[in-house]
UniProtKB/TrEMBL annotation, chain A:
It holds the Pfam family Bac_luciferase. Keywords: Flavoprotein, FMN, Monooxygenase, Oxidoreductase. The keyword Cytoplasm does not apply. It is an enzyme of class 1 (oxidoreductase). This is NtaA/DmoA family FMN-dependent monooxygenase. It comes from Arthrobacter burdickii.
From TrEMBL, chain B:
Gene3D superfamilies: Luciferase-like domain. This is LLM class flavin-dependent oxidoreductase. Pfam families: Bac_luciferase. The lineage of its organism: Bacteria, Bacillati, Actinomycetota, Actinomycetes, Micrococcales. Keywords: Flavoprotein, FMN, Monooxygenase, Oxidoreductase. The keyword Aminoacyl-tRNA synthetase does not apply. Residues 35-283 form the Luciferase-like domain. Signal peptide: none annotated. The keyword Flavoprotein applies. It comes from the Bacteria.
């Protein structure tokens, strides 16, 4: 195993990304200022605003089955999201520098097909593509695919790792000299001599979950291959990221949690034989800003009120109780009846993962009673990602972020706007200049590829790929 | 001066022109080619300003060829009127992904998307995704299933499913979302099912126009009423008209007919015959002057609904076509007027269909 310095040196700077979730309860649609969640113009507006603010990347989430509520599509959620790579290919033609990150799962895709499409996006965008690797494993989503719901929870990251190693082998299989530099190769009708014979290695993988036998068809992009993000928080997920990812899209934005997460990732990264700073960290976050802190607090209350009304609060509890609670008063205490299911179910949409309904609801009843919270107050506190929010005046929040940069708690933040399509405007117009004044934010794009702009090294050829057959 | 009747008659027989954008770069031909375009955007804009109604994007496996659907998506925001129609495989690509990707293309192009549904034998692609090679009649069966899944998923959100009802807090009306519950028919090679609903609202056009090669459409293959247009191929230009009539007779009037034609033109001081050296495509190939091509296309555009041109060299032929062929065809009234801010369905004269699930008594779960 190669030796790396175990010292981690903070870069002293931050990057921003925007997470256009597509399905969420965080985007307020009830406000008059709110626009369409699905029109292309909303995506164009957000991506171009982010680019004006020198954001590193524009992210799209993925979910391949609509969330349900008590057996029907969940009527209260903002839903309806386009395919990530198709949308990002379109955004590539109206942006020039911002990275284009597609969340794509490793379970309901074929490695050769996904690697090819990601290469396409990377080439079409001039080296700005990223893949946010997620591992959806539920039978619920599987019902929309040929393979069905076939993956055990324990197998997820084993499968994901084989998947990404195959993808890397595909991306690494074009020799740098596969295309003649004098421009003589590759003209129309001469596919036979382009790429040069033997310049591309065949990739072969035979595993428990899939078999791939593929001769790659696309050359390297200007950034070699797409930047790899990982989103997932379990120990197995973190180790997977430490071995394979360039950036972790994490869930720990609060200062102490972020510092602890960084330490944990450094340890895992070193154990994986990579340098301490090999994996960047960009937690999911929300920014609610105003000229003064009092106005920001008011704005936060307004946003929360619109995000979670009485119906949302009741529906939120129904997800965990597994039964209708529409007779319950949102301004009263939490329901004192038991949930309809003891064991949580992976096939029932979000809300149930990893917790036993009975224990959880009892704990919540106690928590709300101790704090004297009504259903509405409890859910607003619980569900609105409060721990992910930065609320304050532009300069206050800039000061806070400068502290993060100084100690290297994170490499940046991935912001979920609370409003579409104008939710980034105040960040770009006011927060970014404050961060620049403090010297913790870029004043121009470093290069043209995402890898350059994130300060990532170009990957070694075949560093972590599968054995390939030449 | 023409009367209204004359003009109606002219419009009725006017056809549309499509151009295959292979050779525009990022498709296996553009790298280092002296005749290439600086960018894909430049090529598709050149086709649009030349007056082409439709741009198509080939996608069979080939070194250097970037995914066709992404090339079409890239062209979406920079164009206004030209329809963008990628080839998308129906055999080895997940139907759920195909459906959402195409619906997304419709969103990013403002309703100008279409789909050339392909089903060809590609053992390399089968091996790449670890499946048995599909061949023979099973190919059309796969295509039929994939098309049916997409159509159902596109209908699975009724047009007015997003209600944004502040009073009840509901963003969508769950009664207007539908499970498609698709199952492949008896005897299907590798059976599968798709639950639905889609994850994206109904495409802007409701249903994207679907094109398929005429060779896979008909009884026992892809049903004629599953597609909106077929691509008709003949071995020579002389045989193309007869083939178009045959297919029209076989499939009936409801399916639009698009004739396929390779073109090599006298250009840049070189005779077409000298330039006609590329590999044989299996399509009729027109070799000659721009003026003679006009005379050839005028009656053909009256016979077919449209003609798709496959230029020998995109940049070279597009120059000639833009300068001499399309203006003259327009002058003769042989070309349909481009539909400003219209949809691909508008161009084809297809109304926007209601969702098959839109019925007062239907509810989610049916
Ligand atoms: C910040 C963040 C964003 C995520 N975004 C998505 C997403 O868009 N789509 C998806 O299917 N999963 C998403 N995930 C879920 C993860 O991929 C993963 O399935 C989940 O966290 C469970 O894995 P774990 O047990 O390793 O945490 C996200 C996770 C995190 C932490």
């Amino acid at each position: 195993m190669p030796q790396h310095s175990s010292a981690f040196t903070p870069s002293g700077t931050l990057q921003l990304g925007v997470f256009f979730q597509g399905v969420n309860s965080g985007t307020i649609w009830k406000a008059a200022e709110s626009g369409s969640q699905t029109d292309f113009e909303s995506f164009r507006r957000i991506a171009q605003t982010a680019e004006r603010g020198l954001f590193a990347a524009f992210f799209l989430g993925e979910g391949l089955r609509l969330r349900e509520h008590l057996g029907r599509p969940h009527a209260l959620d903002v839903v309806g999201r386009p395919d990530a790579q198709t949308m990002l290919a379109a955004l590539a033609s109206v942006t020039t520098h911002i990275g284009l990150a597609a969340t794509q799962n490793t379970t309901y895709n074929d490695p050769a097909d996904l690697a090819h499409r990601l290469s396409s996006l990377d080439l079409i965008s001039g080296g700005r593509a990223a893949w946010n690797m997620v591992t959806t494993d539920n039978a619920w989503t599987g019902e929309n695919f040929r393979r069905g719901g076939y993956l055990d929870h324990a197998d997820r990251y084993v499968h994901a790792e084989a998947f990404v190693r195959t993808a890397k082998a595909i991306w690494d299989s074009w020799a740098p000299d596969a295309i003649a530099s004098d421009g003589t190769a590759g003209t129309a009708g001469t596919a036979g001599n382009w790429p040069a014979d033997g310049a591309v290695r065949r990739v072969h993988h035979e595993g428990q979950h899939y078999t791939v036998d593929y001769t790659p068809r696309l050359p390297r992009s200007p950034q070699h291959h797409p930047v790899l993000f990982q989103a997932g928080d379990s120990p197995a997920g973190r180790d997977f990221a430490a071995r394979q990812a360039d950036v972790i899209f994490s869930a720990h934005p609060q200062f102490d949690a972020a510092v602890a997460f960084r330490a944990d990732i450094i340890e895992r990264t070193l154990r994986a034989g990579r340098p301490a700073d090999a994996v960047k960290i960009m937690p999911a976050s929300e920014f609610i800003l105003a000229p003064t802190s009092a106005e920001a607090a008011e704005k936060k209350a307004w946003v929360r009120e619109l995000q979670i009304g009485p119906q949302q609060a009741i529906a939120y509890l129904e997800q965990f109780w597994g039964r209708q609670l529409d007779g319950w008063d949102p301004d009263g205490p939490l329901p004192d009846i038991d949930p309809a299911v003891e064991e949580t179910s992976e096939t029932r949409g979000s809300g149930f993962h990893g917790a036993k309904a009975g224990e959880l609801t009892a704990q919540w009843r106690q928590e709300a009673a101790e704090k004297g919270q009504s259903i509405l107050e409890f859910v607003r506190a619980k569900a609105a990602r409060s721990d992910a929010s930065f609320v304050g005046s532009y300069s206050e929040v800039a000061d806070t972020l400068a502290d993060y940069a100084r100690v290297g708690a994170v490499d940046g933040f991935n912001i979920s706007p609370w409003l579409i399509p104008t939710g980034l405007d105040d960040i770009v117009n006011h927060l970014v200049p404050e961060l620049q004044e403090r010297g913790v934010y870029p004043t121009q794009y470093r290069g043209t590829t995402l890898r350059e702009n994130l300060g990532l090294a170009v990957p070694d050829r075949a560093a972590a790929g599968e054995p390939a057959i030449r | 001066m023409s009367t209204i009747d004359d003009r109606t008659a002219t419009a009725a027989r006017a056809g549309f022109l499509a151009i295959e954008l292979d050779g525009a770069g990022w498709d296996g031909t553009g790298f280092g080619s002296p005749d290439g375009f600086a960018s894909l955007a430049e090529a598709v804009l050149a086709a649009e300003s030349a007056g082409f109604h439709v741009a198509t994007f080939a996608d069979s496996p080939r070194a250097g060829r970037v995914n066709a659907l992404q090339r079409a998506a890239y062209a979406g925001p920079v164009t206004r009127t030209i329809a963008l129609v990628p080839e998308v495989d129906t055999v080895y690509t997940e139907p759920f992904h195909v459906s959402t990707q195409l619906a997304s293309l419709d969103y990013v192009s403002g309703g100008r998307a279409g789909w050339i549904a392909t089903a060809a034998e590609f053992p390399e692609t089968a091996a790449a995704v670890g499946r048995e090679n599909v061949s023979g009649t099973a190919l059309a069966q796969e295509a039929a299933a994939s098309i049916e899944v997409s159509r159902r998923l596109w209908d699975s959100w009724e047009d007015d499913a997003v209600i944004r009802d502040v009073a009840t807090g509901r963003y969508i009306d769950a009664d207007k979302l539908h499970y498609v519950d698709y199952k492949t028919p008896e005897g299907f090679g590798a059976p599968y099912s798709v639950k639905g609903p889609s994850i994206i609202p109904r495409p802007l056009q409701g249903q994207l126009p679907i094109l398929a090669p005429a060779s896979i459409v008909g009884t026992g293959q892809v049903p004629a009423d599953a597609v909106d247009a077929v691509l008709v191929t003949a071995p020579t230009p002389e045989l193309l008209t007869a083939e178009i009539r045959d297919v029209r007779h076989r499939l009936g009037a409801a399916v639009a007919i698009v004739g396929e034609l390779d073109v090599v033109l006298d250009a840049r001081g070189q005779a077409a015959v000298e330039r006609a050296t590329g590999p044989v495509s299996g399509r009729a190939r027109y070799v000659g002057s721009a003026a003679d091509l006009v005379d050839f296309l005028e009656p053909l555009l009256a016979e077919a609904d449209g003609v798709r041109l496959h230029p020998a060299s995109l940049a070279v032929e597009l120059d000639e076509l833009a300068r001499w062929v399309l203006p003259e065809l327009r002058r003769r009234g042989a070309l349909r007027a481009p539909v400003q801010d219209g949809t691909f369905r508008d161009l084809l004269g297809l109304p926007r269909p209601a969702s098959r699930y839109a019925h007062p008594s239907t509810t989610a779960g049916n």
